[in-house]
From TrEMBL:
Pfam families: ABC_tran (PF00005). SMART domains: AAA (SM00382). It comes from Anaerovirgula multivorans. Residues 84-317 form the ABC transporter domain. This is ABC-type lipoprotein export system, ATPase component. One of its GO terms (molecular function) is ATP hydrolysis activity. Belongs to the ABC transporter superfamily. Keywords: ATP-binding, Lipoprotein, Nucleotide-binding, Transport.
Amino acid sequence: MKDSVSLENLIIEDLLRIYPYSMEFFNINGLPIDDVNNTVKDYITSLPYVFLEDMGLNQEDLLKRFRAFMSRMKDIGEERTFSIRDITILGGRGKNEKLEEIELKISMGEIICIVGPTGSGKSRLLADIEWMAQRDTPTKRQILIDGSVPPRDWRFSVEHRLVAQLSQNMNFVMDICVGDFIKLHAQSRMIDDTEDKTREIIFHANELSGERFDLNTPLTSLSGGQSRALMVADTAFLSTSPIVLIDEIENAGIHRNKALELLVGQNKIVLIATHDPLLALMGNKRIVIKNGGIQKVIETTSDEKRCLIRLTEIDNVLIRYREILRNGDLLDDNM
């Protein structure tokens, strides 16, 4: 991208073609474009004094505002490339002050399951990762990014947010349709072709959801499962966060296996807090939490992978039965 001073010497037609988001500058400032063959600078210079006075600006102020807008949009475009290779969890201590003798490295594309009784400390571990803890949380854990202590300002930066969360309850309050919601998110991420990206996300969301929906479906009319499916697909394709946290996806009413494949396929670290044996065995490793601390880390064994095959077969039968019942048909002993 050219510097913002050079951009003001582009003719408006070229500016809008190369940087479609620049149209927002004219829209938010109420600037009508009568001739796209003018340069931005000539256009602003030609604006009547009375018009600028109503805005409380002069020509130079408006040019500065244009430069600042384009510079900020450039920064946003660069921020969307935020990525990491791995994170490392250095152990702290549990509720009983027992030391966690652990150094766990998690790489992009891995699925890590977190298991343990309710209240054992699963959420605290996830919070430590999200906060990039540096021995300054109750657990005294430390999180390294690519083997190093992350810059302090990352902890307070929206652009460097490490974790995207998919909670059990997804309730929308925006009174817009699904297509507009995705387009708004895509535009905020500086995606060039928002139409294609919107169609791609809805396609994959419908692959996860039992009941299909389309671009024009109001957000507020989506069921719990549809909402969760939409947010999984949206997170996979639009979220810049390299880590996705999923809380008890077994209760979401969506295709769990496909959801995980979609997220991992976008080269994200997936952390799943779960009580489901099928999901627990789908991970590369599982972290066992007890009494607020990490008790052990278990790599999925070959025997467990064979168990996973049998569990998947059972799960597929249950999915088939569920679809039969949803469609109002009857089950029989020969199925």
